[in-house]
Each structure stands twice: as C-alpha cells, then as structure tokens.
Amino acid sequence: MGKLDSSIREIRELENLARETSFVHRLDPRVKLIATFAFIAAVVSFDRYEIAALVPYLFFPIFVAGAGGLPLSAVVKRLLVLSPFVVLVGIFNPLYDRTVLLRIGGLAITGGWVSFAAILVRYVLTVSAALLLIASTGFYTLCGGIERLGVPKVFVVQLLLLYRYIFVLTDEASRMARARAQRSFRRGPMEIRVFVPFAGALLLRTVERAQRIYQAMLARGFDGTMKAGAFGGVAPRAGSSGDEAGDYGAARANLGRSIRFSDALFLGVWVSLFALFRFVNLPAMLGDLLLRAAG
Amino acid sequence: MSATVIEVRGLSYAYPDGTRALDDVSFCVGRGESLAIVGANGAGKSTLLLHLNGSLLSERGEVIVNGTAVHKRTLREVRRAVGVVFQDPDDQLFMPVVRDDIAFGPVNMGLAPDEVERRVRGALERVGALHLIGRPPYRLSAGEKRAVAIASVLSMEPDILVMDEPTSSLDPRGRRSLLGLLGSFGHTKIVAAHDLDFVLDLCERTIVLHRGRILADGRTADIFQNDALLEESRLERPLRMQGCPLHGKKKGRRMRR
Hints:
The structure holds 2 protein chains of 2 kinds. By secondary structure, chain A is mainly α. Chain A is 70% helix and 3% strand. Chain A has helices spanning 2-17, 23-26, 29-44, 59-67, 72-90, 93-96, 111-137, 139-148, 153-183, 192-219, 242-245, 247-253, 261-279, 282-294; strands at 100-104, 107-110. In chain A, a hairpin with a 2-residue loop joins β1 and β2. In chain A, α4 (59-67) packs parallel to α7. The radius of gyration of chain A is 24 Å and the shape is flat. In chain A, 25% of the residues are buried. In chain B, β4 (60-65) and β5 (68-69) form a beta hairpin. In chain B, α4 (98-108) packs across α5, α4 (98-108) runs parallel beside α6 and α5 (113-126) crosses α6 (142-154). The chains are: A mainly alpha, B alpha/beta. The A-B interface holds A 140, 143, 160-161, 163-165, 167-168, 209, 212-213, 215-223, 227-234, 243-250, 252 and B 50, 53, 55, 76, 79-80, 83-84, 86, 88, 90-92, 94-100, 103-105, 107-110, 113, 116-117, 130-138, 152-153, 156.
C-alpha cells in the first residue's frame, strides 16, 4: 500500500514538470493529444517481430523531452517502476514461440525472444510518450483539451473528479493500512482474510465521501450539469507574476485560444513522420544503402 | 431582536436505520445573530445543520428561511440564502482549481461571467486568500483550505452562514485568524462546534442539544456557567472559564484525578 501511495504521488511530481513554459508546453493540448495518439497507434500497429522499424519512433519522445526541457531521467525512472509488469507479460513468449528466426554464429534467436524484445521496445515508446504528454501539459489542461476535442463533458468531469480525489482516497487507504500494520505482527503482505473487509471498509468510506461531496455540490446549486464557465482558469494579469494565477489556472485560461501556426506545424510534421516511419522501413533502407556502398 | 431569518418548528428526524437524531426541535434566529449549537457527539448537531439548507428534508415539523418553508420546490431559493460550510474542506473543494471552486456556486446561479469573476475575487479577498486563486485545492494547507471553503460559500452572497466544526484540524494560529475573520462578517451565523472557547468568542447565543432535543437556549455566557446543565449534556466549561490550575483559583468543575 505504501508503494501504491508513493507511485500515485509520483504522478503529482510529474505534474510539477508541467509548470515549465517551453515551446512544447505552450502547444495546444489538443495538438499534443492527437500527435501522441497517432504515435501510439502507429507504434502498436507493427507486426510483433518488428523491432528495427520501430527505432525511428524514438525521435518523438527524444524531441519532446529535449524541446520541452524535460529530464529524460524522470521518464526513465517511471518506466523502470512499471517494467516488471511488462516483463511479466512478455516473458513467456520465448517459451511458447521457439521458431528460429536468425542465427548469429552458434546462437539461435527464436521468434519468442524477438517478440519479447519488441514488446519492451513498444512499451518504452508508448509509455514514455504518454508520460511526456502529461509532463508537458498537466492533467487539468489535458482534460480541457480532451473536452475541446468533443469528448462529452460528463466523462471529462469524471476524469477531473477522479484526479481530484485519488490523492484523498489513497491517503485514506494508506492510513487504514498503517493502522492495520501496527496491530498485525506478521511481516509480509496483507492476508486475503484481512484484505476483503479492508477493501469493503474502504469502499464504504468512499461511498460516504461521495455522498458528502454531492451534498456540498447541491448546497451550491448544482443541478446535474456543469455549466459553461465552471472551468474558467485564471488569466495571469498584466504586471503580476505568474504566481497569482497559478500554473494550472493560467494554463486553463489559455485553453480558449485557437490553433496557432506552431501547433499546426508540430502536428503536421510529426504525423507525417509517423506515417513515413510506418510505411517506409528506414533502418532497413539505411542498411541496404550501406551494404551496397560497401559492396 | 431584529427580524427572524430562520425559524425551526417542531423538527424531528430519524435516520433510515431508525436512529432518532432530532426530536421536536424549535428555535428562531434573528437577522445578524450569531448562534452556536453545541452538544456531545451524536447529539444531532450535524443533522440539524443539514436541515437548514434542505440537504435533509424534515419528516415532522418545518424549517422556514426568510419566510419561505424549506420544500423540494423551494430548495433553489433556500440554498441561495443559506450557505453551508461543511466540516471537511476536502468534501467542499471538488474542483481542479480554487477559482473554479469559488465560481461553482455563482455559475450555478446563472450569473453573467463578469459578475462571476467579480464575486470570485471579492470572496477570496474577503478571506485573505486571493493569492491562492490559481492553485489546485490539494496543495493547500488545512487553514488555507478552510478559508477557501468559506470563500466558496461567500461567493454566493448568502444571508446566512452555517458552519459545521469550523475549527476542526486547524492549528492555533489558523483558529485565531478564522475567529477574526468570522467576527468581521455581518452575516447571520449558525455554528456547530465542540470548541467551546471559540463559541464563547464568536457567539452571543448558544443552543445545547442533547440526544436530539434542545436542553437549553440562551446567552452563551450564562449557559457556560450552568454546571448542572453542562454535566447533563456531557459538556465542560470552556477552558478559559475553568480557572487556571497554575495561576488562578479553580472555579467551576473540579478536576478529576
């Protein structure tokens, strides 16, 4: 539970990076969203044995991190945190798939190992792109972008409420877990016998909190719909430091603007590059070229 | 006393599980009055407060706000007049940014954007928290959260402020500044509290609830000197009225050893 707590907190730290004001940060969130989704779609659409063709896609996260002044270490750290899960997903491939694809000297490389490696590469690509999206945009601004892309407000509000209360709930869960750990003298994880009522109690608390929140909303005239102007943000006023408006506030106020030339350029260039990488195997071409030059 | 703004008549309420929370409660509150509702845990304080803005609707008896009986149909009107500050600011501040939280009420009231912004700034200025306007609520301290929660209600410009345990989880300094803040408001105030010293400073009148019934209703100073009454309702004199064990002669309750 302590781990869950700290990994949720990490998201918050990632959010700190969203306060920068680089070129990437100032792009319209919609543009970044679409580009990231196009990127992910392109990466996952490859055949499961394909690795070489994926390599050019590395340019995108490297570009975003570089131009956005985002430390790659922040991304790598989080990639490592999640990596055990991914390894678990792919680790059985070498056992199932024993077709030999390639021999290097005496070493036979089976399809299973190749697809396992492809899973890892894809994981690194897609998750780092998603992390960089959050780190260069911030969750709230991102939600604003999602909304402007035409996703129904109900879903966006759900996302926002989730993000608002996930910290409150994990706090509650970790307090309960601490109280349990203090009185249980065995080491190791929670037994299932304890976990079931624990989860039940947490659920009940959550439901109660939801009711209280709803009551507070009703008390301020909520009638089931989020009205226009409810998410306004705060425009930084002339002469004031960005501090008064706050970073999220300012970012939200910035949401109302229309697509600029730089936005269009960013989107156009990257989506065409993704398409190029998708249909033209650049590393293979490069290899051919080198071989021909040598031969 | 000036005009009555809230009248509670014969109010009774039992929770769905059968727990009797309020039993024939009646009182009136005049304009500009500061009323404290005190009582032991489970005395019915919160349940009573929830009736004042129609969060709970009366089973028997009625609540009348500014001459309007609280009904399903009159909820909009009542909630405009009665602003409730809930006990846990985390329940009250549900929007992503402080500004949005303060604007929530005014936006729901259908005010024009300019007016909404004016009220947001006005309310935050009033509680001395304008610098927090663009912050997400989860990054605020407990004292800041409390101030913002109060501003989120002030922005609707209610006549009546209802507060449940406003000093809970505040440090001494935060408690002191809250006291100064609330003292400066001209609103009619109804405050449920365990912090009787706070009540002594803020409210001239106190109602003592015990097991859902009103045990006493009178001047705060009188009630806190009535040891028999306090004993019966499982309360104690405010610390300030207990006599200082180090410097002063002991008055009031004997200290148990």
